[in-house]
Amino acid sequence: MLLALLALAAWRAWVWWEAREPADHAPAADVRIEALNDRISALRGDLRAQAQRIQQADATNRVLRDELLGMGQRAALIEDSIARWSDPDRHGAQALRLDEAELLLAMGQQRLLIAGDLDGARRAYTLAGGVLSGVDDPAFLSLRQVLVQERAALDELGDDPRVRALARLQAFTSELDRPTDAVPVASAPADASWWRRAFSTVFDIQPRHRSLAVRPADRGDAMAGLQLELTLARAAAERRDVEAWRTALTRADAWLQRLWAPSPELQGRRDALAALAALPLSPELATLGSTLEQLRQLRSVRQEP
Question: Coiled-coil annotation: which residues (predicted)?
């Protein structure tokens, strides 16, 4: 019995000890867990700080890379500028001559196309030829030959087409400056019948559909309309408006048919108006600008790296 009581007491003591040991170690475990949590929090803070530093480093690297690229581009531009400044063909006496020749050729072309000034264009091309004669570069030898051909074509143009058209229009207008009180009567042709030839000076039969002005007031209005259309045609020729020029002359032809009866004189005047409408108002030159274009091509080729 004593041994049984001792065994029971020992077992109870062991159970009590086992139940007490976790309670004693619980505070120490909580302390270790809290320490681990603090350490993890610190590590997380360090990680966030490292991530921010890495982002800042990336941003700095991008800025540095952009600046490096910009410096490379600026260096390339500086090298290009230095190459251009050191090019004797661009900044020497020859380059100045080429610039002057290009300017003169452009001026001559524009004076001919815009103002129709043949004399001004010829003077500009003559000056450009004198400037190019001082260029001793063999590459521009063909350019002088093209300029000679273009100048020869300019000399073959003669007078300004606008001046010729205005002169012919003035001559046509001066023929109309005569009294128009009486209606011109068409004479009978030579092969007409005897009664038509006999009475052609007494009677003049006109078609009913013809709107021929007979009364002096009507003829005066028709002549005023004709003069107005001729004035409009003259203004169109001054500004080189081919469409307005031909339209005005077409309306003038209608006024002619209202003023004169069918006759050789009327037909001659209508033919003169048709010939005037067919005249050009601007000089036509197929080779115009060929020298300027070739000069620009040669200079662009020589400036290429």
Answer: 33-67
